[in-house]
Amino acid sequence: MPDLAYGGEAWALLRLKVPQRVLAAAGVDGAAVALGTIAWRYTGIDGEPRAIQPQALSLPVLPAVAFGAISEDELVLRRIGELEAAELQVKARRAAMAGDWDTVMRLLRKAERLGGDNPWIAAVVAELRKLAERRDEAVFAKASAYGSHRMHSRLAVRDEERALDAARPAATYLRRKSHQGRAEGPDPSSASPRD
Length: 195
Prior knowledge:
The chain is of the alpha+beta class. 46% of the residues lie in helices and 14% in strands.
């Protein structure tokens, strides 16, 4: 996890696979299934170690119809898309370093699909596509490593939805940039804060 800066938030996503036998043991719909315990340790701004006491994680068993009726959280979906795009950049970097530009382009097409709903991903992938067309392994590898790292570990504006409408841009360390080393100009997506 990145250091948490003032005015920002950091995310940790957890994906659990629950074995069928655990669900069968829970039996009736609505029964809670214990999934584990989560504890958090961190260092405060004063340098002192801190901990959040372990919290039990359990979820109710739902029939497929009820589960399908639950709406997906758009912010969570956006974060998941960023992590998937980051993984694709790591794979594209490896392919570029091996000189496999066909694989690089295939992976960038996958990442472009993720960018359909996320202007930041779309801007990053557009920059990477330009670099891939030049077939410069070193430059592409550096840019894709940077982009992947930023998507994996970025801080976000605490209320990103409200920040999208704000006239004043977020603090520099909370902005989303599509590429490294360039001066900030207009936001390429014109619909989201920069990093």
